[in-house]
């Protein structure tokens, strides 16, 4: 490798390969793991849950549960945040497109080290479920955390969730 090529490679962080060394094949290079999380609609007794997480995982990263008989809607999100401690009261902002919902939540330790779970409960109202009516991304903001969840796989499930929660046919 000439002096100029060595300087360019060095400035780009490429470095020079030793004589006779082969480059790593593209198939062996590190790849970003595929996100296999999905939206699932589940029912247990009087509770209906729309959850986002890995298939078969016990704990989703985001869930909204409704209890029609109690008129209750509960939001749960698991995040990494150095600004939230177990037992803290925290503000949670949920946004889809132009719609925004701010909730007061309680935080507790998550299942994984460094994770916290925030839970907020509100009255089961049509306008709260309107949050999921339009848009492609659900953005969840908490102190020290800003997380986005794709809604593409949730659209049909949201319609069924809303109908079941509000008792509409």
Describe the protein's topology.
Elements: H1 3-11, E1 38-44, E2 47-53, E3 62-67, E4 72-80, E5 89-96, E6 99-109, E7 115-123, H2 126-129, E8 137-142, E9 145-150, H3 155-166
Antiparallel strand pairs: 1-2, 2-3, 3-4, 4-7, 5-6, 5-8, 6-7, 8-9
What does this protein look like?
The N terminus is likely disordered. The radius of gyration is 22 Å and the shape is globular. It has a 9-stranded antiparallel β-sheet with strand order 1-2-3-4-7-6-5-8-9, covered by helices on one side. It is mainly β. A hairpin with a 5-residue loop joins strand 6 and strand 7. It has a single domain, classed as Immunoglobulin-like (Sandwich), CATH 2.60.40. It is 15% helix and 41% strand. It contains 3 helices and 9 strands, in the order αβββββββαββα.
